[in-house]
Amino acid sequence: MLLLAAAFLVAFVLLLYMVSPLISPKPLALPGAHVVVTGGSSGIGKCIAIECYKQGAFITLVARNEDKLLQAKKEIEKHSINDKQVVLCISVDVSQDYSQVENVIKQAQEKLGPVDMLVNCAGMSLSGKFEDLEVSTFERLMSVNYLGSVYPSRAVITTMKERRVGRIVFVSSQAGQLGLFGFTAYSSSKFAIRGLAEALQMEVKPYNVYVTVAYPPDTDTPGFAEENKTKPLETRLISETVSVCKPEQVAKQIVKDAIQGNFNSSIGSDGYMLSSLTCGMAPVTSITEGLQQVVTMGLFRTIALFYLGSFDSIVRRCMTQRAKSEIADKTA
């Protein structure tokens, strides 16, 4: 009887694997597609643009600094696969004025055609203890990280639905899956992106438009270097428990998942564990993906208890060291 039940389970799993591709979204063809990348002048955004360009896409780069945009354009153009490809640069702050963002998207579509894929990569990070951060820091990060993703997405969504084709990528962070010491302002802005993505996916899926949320870990970018300048000791020590990824590696995975229409995009074993552990009610691209999450969630939750416990011990150790230093200063 037990053998029969095991055989039935194996057959059921095999059936799911066979049926899954039939109900999964069809991959988006990048050759000739128009890809818009915000925050595309450096870091992960620039690497995503390069990866798409390598596959034959037309690129619109959107960022604030015009000089950096032009430099990125030169780098990207080195990777062309045909002489028809174009890299268009537009300088605008995507977090300030929706009408401006809408206008530049219209300009890009007039020159390169409808947007097939939008990658919301514009963002910034500022860290510090909750009571040490100015209230304006919370407002600024919500504006850049959250509204900076809302505005471009709002500008392209109508056309995507009309054409019944499109991909919208939101670049969140592992700090958007897991709240960490020193990231009260940053984490909340990145968590907000996930809520937006989940709700938006429910609205646009009937129109063959798919949303991807990427959760990159610490990545070797100019933004990460700037972030390290203000990190509290506890935050820095927690970050040092994992290795820093290369932006090219992160970009390849994000582009791959976006093409496939996967909702979650994670990097490495830690990223996979976090995505499975925090999947909640998030949509899945295939039956097998959902099955994998169900099977692995219990195991990963057990691992996470020890994983998060190590973070707590780092914070306590830093607090103890600071307390001893303060006592020593007072008695000196």
TrEMBL record:
Database matches in Pfam families: adh_short (PF00106)
Lineage: superkingdom: Eukaryota
InterPro entries from the UniProt entry: KDSR-like, NAD(P)-bd_dom_sf, Sc_DH/Rdtase_CS, SDR_fam
Compartments (UniProt record): Endoplasmic reticulum
Any Gene Ontology CC annotation: endoplasmic reticulum membrane
EC number: 1.1.1.102
Catalysis: reaction(s): sphinganine + NADP(+) = 3-oxosphinganine + NADPH + H(+)
GO biological process per UniProt: 3-keto-sphinganine metabolic process; sphingolipid biosynthetic process
Pathway in which the depicted protein is active: Sphingolipid metabolism; Lipid metabolism; sphingolipid metabolism
Enzyme class, broadest EC rank: oxidoreductase
Primary location: endoplasmic reticulum
Signal peptide residues on this chain, from the entry's feature table: 1-25
Keywords: Endoplasmic reticulum, Lipid metabolism, NADP, Nucleotide-binding, Oxidoreductase, Signal, Sphingolipid metabolism
A GO molecular function held by the record: 3-dehydrosphinganine reductase activity
Family as reported in the entry's similarity comment: Belongs to the short-chain dehydrogenases/reductases (SDR) family.
Function: Catalyzes the reduction of 3'-oxosphinganine (3-ketodihydrosphingosine/KDS) to sphinganine (dihydrosphingosine/DHS), the second step of de novo sphingolipid biosynthesis.
Protein's name in the database: 3-ketodihydrosphingosine reductase
Source organism per UniProt: Enhydra lutris kenyoni (northern sea otter)
Classification lineage: Eukaryota, Metazoa, Chordata, Craniata, Vertebrata
